[in-house]
Amino acid sequence: MKKFNCHKISEGCVEAEAIVSKDHIMFYLMNPETGDVIEKAHDLEGKSVANKILIFPGGKGSSVVQADGLFQLNMHKNMPAAMVVQFPETVLVSSAIIMEVPMVDKVSPEFYETVQDGDRVRVDANNGVIEIL
């Protein structure tokens, strides 16, 4: 088990499988019924973020499509279980808070070098800790 400190953006504590993206994400380019990334040539193309801890650099696209994409995922119960974001922005932050999805940032570079797809991860935003189990 490895522990890393983080900064709470949206409260909560969850444990789930990690899915790691090196690419920025446009949530509008996800299938809300499955959580699958449908953006062509994205490093997560064809993979689902539903109920996983999404680790990614940040969002891309306009605020309207970002918010709508997250809203659609939420309506179909296919939101990520938590989000670890390197470069938070207003739409991602406000959406995480409104939709009650734990979100953190300010994690050491070692975390991003260590965590891999499929790792079991616990995000405890309330206490500012991420654990790779």
Quick tags:
3 helices; alpha/beta; 27% strand; globular; Glucose Oxidase, domain 1; 133 residues; eight-stranded mixed beta sheet
Q: How many discrete domains?
A: 1
Low-confidence stretches: none
Determine Rg (CA atoms, Å).
13 Å
Beta-strand percent range: 25-35%
| Helix-strand category | alpha/beta
Order of strands in the sheet with the most strands?
A: 1-8-7-3-4-5-6-2
**What is the helical fraction, as a range of percent?**
10-25%
- Architecture (CATH level 2) name: 3-Layer(bba) Sandwich
CATH topology: Glucose Oxidase, domain 1
CATH level 1 class label: Alpha Beta
- Termini separation comes to 5 Å
Calculate the mean pLDDT score and round it: 96
Which series of helices and strands comes N to C? Answer: EEEEHEHEHEE
How would you describe the shape? globular
- Largest sheet composition: 8 strands, mixed
CATH superfamily: Phosphohistidine domain
Quick summary of this structure?
The chain has 133 residues and is an alpha/beta fold.
How does this model look, in words?
With 133 residues, this protein is α/β, with parallel strands linked by helices. The chain has one domain (2-132): 3-Layer(bba) Sandwich (Glucose Oxidase, domain 1). The protein has 3 helices and 8 strands, in the order ββββαβαβαββ. Helix 1 (63-75) links the parallel strand 4 and strand 5 (82-85). The longest helix has 13 residues, at 63-75. It is globular. The protein starts with a strand and ends with a strand.
